[in-house]
Every structure is written in C-alpha cells, then in structure tokens.
Amino acid sequence: MNAPAAGPLNRIDLIARYREVRDQTEHLCAPLATDDYQIQSVLETSPPKWHLAHVSWFFETFLLAPQVPDYRPFHPRFEYLFNSYYESVGSRHPRAQRGLISRPTVEDVYRYRQHVDDAMLALMHSVPDARWDATAFLATLGLHHEQQHQELLLMDIKHNFAANPLRPAYQRAPSNVSTAVAERLRWIERGGGICEIGHEGSGFAFDNETPRHTVLLRDHALASRPVTNGEYLQFMASGGYGDARYWLADGWAILREKGWEAPLYWEQRDGEWWHMTLNGLRPLNTAEPVCHVSFYEADAYARWAGKRLPLEEELETMLAAEPLEGNFVESGLLHPRPAAAGDGQWYGDVWEWTRSAYSPYPRFVPLAGSLGEYNGKFMANQMVLRGGCCVTPRSHMRESYRNFFYPHDRWPFTGIRLAADR
Ligand SMILES: [Fe+2]
Fold first, then answer.
1. Residue 2: pLDDT band by 50, 70, 90 thresholds?
2. What does the CA dihedral 384, 403, 162, 25 come to, rounded to 10 degrees?
C-alpha cells in the first residue's frame, strides 16, 4: 500500500489511542437526549446515531472483516445501513433517508460500538508483528476518520438544534468565554520564491496531502487574524449582499435563490443580531471571527475589502512556521473566540477558506483498494480550507491538512482570512 506511515506504530500507544478516541466520541454525545440522536435536519447532515454507527462500520469493513478470519459482523445488514459513499464496498442506504432509521435503536448502536471495540482490541493485541504495520496504518486511519466524524457530529448537532424554534443549547456556556476586543488587523509581508508543501515523514497524513512537492509563491501579505463579526457587519451594512459586483456568478445565483442576507445561524431580534451557537442563541460578539460563511461570501467579502482569499500554499507555509496551538475542541468553548494580542489564530477557531480548488497534488496516488475512495474521488468542484476550527481535535490537525467543502457550504465552522498581492 502506498500509504504514509501510521504515526504511533507502537502497540501499547496505539491501543491507548484507540480507547481515547472512541471514548471521546461517546463523551461528545453525553449531553444528548435519546431523541436528539435521530435528527437529520438537512441532506448534508447525519443523525448523531448514524455517525456513531458509521465510524464503527469503518473498522468492521476495512480491518475486522478482512483481517479476522472468524469475525462475525454485529448485524449482516449494517454494511448496507452505515456505508457512507464506498461504491466498491456495495450498495447503501440513501443519504437523505438516514434520519428515518429508528431501528437499530440508540442502545443497539452503543452495543454495536462495544462489539467492534472488543474485536478491535483483540486484533491489536494479537496481530503478528509481521502484519503490524499494515494493521496499525488502517487502525490509525480509522481513528482519524472517527475524529473527522467527531467534528461532523458537533457541526450536525448545531444544525439540528438551530432548526428547532426553541434554539436548545448543546452545552451551557463555559465560564471562560472571552470578552476581549479583537486585536487590530495587521499585514504580514511575505516574500515569494520556490517552497515545498505537502506531507512527508513518519507521522500520519491522509493521501490527499501527498506527495510533498515544490510550489512557486509570489510576494504577498496575509492578514494577522481572521475577519471579525464586526468587520463583516460593515460589509452587510454597506449593501454587500445586494451588490452583484462583489459576487461570483454561482454565488450571486445561490444568494438570490436562498435569500442569504447574513451568515448562517444569524438572526435579528428587536433590531439586534443574535446567532445560534452550541451554547444556544447568543448576542453576536463583534470581536469574534465571523463563522458559518460560504466560500462565495468569503470571496465577496474579500473583493469588497479590496483584497483576496489566500492560496492553500500561502497558508500551509505560514502554518508550518507556527506552533500547533489554538482554540480546538479541547478548550470546551466549541465556538470561535476573539483574537488575543499577538495571536494570529492560524490554527483553530475557524476553518479558513482558500481560493485553491481541491485537486490532486502533482503525482498524487490515492490509497489502494476501496480506501482510494476516501479522498480522491471528491477532487472536483470543492475548495480547500486550512487550519482547523473550534470543534476540531488538536491531535487531528497538522500544517499539511487539506479540508474541503463545496463553495456553498455554510454549516462547517468556516471563516475568512484576507490576503493581498504585493
Ligand atoms: Fe466517514
């Protein structure tokens, strides 16, 4: 397999990591009522129950079934119910109908998880040394896959709760919510030249981050922090949503079709802007990074501001020079926070839209077999985002990480960093 190395190849470490990641998924579901597990508010989102089962299906399909000769699937039809998009694995339940599955029950799905955990732990303890590297790679891939779904779980729960007129809170607002004022925006001047981007080395990476290769950077500048709600309000107040000059044609069409007038989750009450958060409906804090904007809105804002969005290579070379620290899921805020003095918010808070199309790097080769469908087949019509957000696990992030969404998507924690040509 042309796989990058797995990262923690040591048996003890990987088993500990397996338990930690699987426990974290269930920890994220702890605030949910049984009724919450069933909701699918729109096509893009999945019910929490489906996420819990699908990540287990991944281990069952790609590790346990092929590697454990006497493995008995928990249920013979779960392969159909919980396959997400793997054509080569077989047919599957339609995505739009995931919310219709009341059986298995939530309790059954937790038993399914336990069944898979028992088998996975037995496999990781018993697999011979000669097969360890291949098993460790697939187990690590399964854990990063589960961490992706941890982020999706929180994104989807937020969307589900926002669809409820009661605007319920997933959690009570932590007491350490910042009331800071965002630092003044500065420009970081960066010289051009030939640079390298992409993953290389012994740590884990997805296939879409490889191979490492050279790129030509031109002289440019990056904003010292993401755009704030207050700055975005100025764009709105100046008629940004009503002026076609700022918008790409596809963006303008969808704005008119959907009636977009503000970022997703914003609503006006008595003349004031509020927005839905995982802590319920809250007054808009103008110092926080703007969040839940589509690529089209990010691009329109940049054009209005006389700037542009960054290229993915501009952000990756910046991320490579910054410590992997920021407001990730571990902070417990589950919401972007205002930039403190000197904090560039390069990692965490909001995924930053780039103007780079999600396409293969030169000489990209997808993983062999069915897992080649993980990333490669999505390399059309989507845009790259960088840096992670406030619901990303820190251990899931790295400088070369390429997230991707459709340009109209707004339910991820997406924000805007400006760039400029020099
Ligand atoms: Fe998945």
1. very low
2. 180
